[in-house]
Amino acid sequence: MSGFNLAKMETLKQTLESTLESVDKVEEWVIQEAGIAGFEEDEQHQIGMAVRECAVNAVVHGNRYNSKKRMHVEIQRTPQALTVIIGDEGDGFAMTSLPDPLAPENLLKQSGRGLLLIRAFMDDFDLHPRPGGGTEVKLVKNIVT
Amino acid sequence: MDAAGRITLGEGASAFRGAIRDLVAKGNKKILLNLGEVSYIDSSGIGELVSGFTTVQNAGGQLKLVGLSKRVKDLLQITKLYTVFEAFDDETEAVRSFS
Predict the structure, then answer these.
(1) How many A/B residue pairs have CB atoms within 8 Å?
(2) Burial of B17: CB neighbours in 10 Å, binned 0-12, 13-18, 19+
(3) Mutate which: B40, B43, B77, vs A, most A CBs within 10 A
(4) Is residue A90 within 8 Å of residue A62, measured between CB atoms?
(5) CATH code, residues B2-97
(6) How confident is the model over B35-55, as pLDDT tens digits?
């Protein structure tokens, strides 16, 4: 018998309005899926917070609360990892333009810590243009068995 | 000042901001912020903590923290804000530190 593992992947998708209520919904949904995937409570909280930061970026900075624009969320659950993809319909985003929130001159700035938290809490983070316009982020948290 | 619930983007963060500004406007210079009942802070909430800190400092006062949960302590570590905020586990010790 070969060691080939045909891993089962479950994919769930939602399209939501550009509101803070949608941000709360996405966070709750992801925490629930993280629990199903087997993550412990602290990890669920961290995944939820990372996803919340991305959802806020999509709604606030990407779609700018525009009622005609949507946030697109996809959750992929495999035995190896939980992957969350969040897309907006905004004008795009250049990560290189962001100041380092840990630099001494930026420590007392009010904003700019979202990506720092996302990177701290997730195993992989990728940001790229969304097909059809906007920005898409992909967050991965590995399941350690 | 006792904070409770969620300090996140939206109503939670703006209510927190308003409360700090009220205290400063009333002339309070020594503000101890008890976060013991705060269940959740996101990056916007952290931003409000920083903004509160600078508001109080610019008015010639001090803002210190007490009752931080492990999760909030972790956030301050990740963001390096533990180097900015004076934080205490014990309220009596925190109050004494102002004198």
Answers:
(1) 50
(2) middle
(3) B43
(4) yes
(5) 3.30.750.24
(6) 998 888 999 999 999 999 999
As to burial, measured by CB atoms within 10 angstroms (0-12 exposed, 13-18 middle, 19+ buried), residue A112 is: middle
Q: Which residues of B touch A49 (CB under 8 A)?
A: 42
Give DSSP secondary structure letters for A75-143. Answer: EEE-SSEEEEEEE--SS---GGG---TTSGGGTT-SS--HHHHHHHH-SEEEEEEPTTSSEEEEEEEE-
Q: What DSSP state is assigned to residue B83?
A: G
- Domain range summary for chain B, segments of one domain joined by +: 2-97
User: In which domain, by residue range, is A53 found?
Assistant: 10-94+112-142
pTM (2 d.p.): 0.90
Q: Do A111 and B44 touch (CB under 8 A)?
A: yes
When divided into structural domains, chain A yields a total of 1
| Distance in angstroms (rounded) separating the CA atoms of residues A45 and B68 | 16
pLDDT surpasses 70 at A1:
no
Beta-carbon count within 10 A of B48 CB: 25
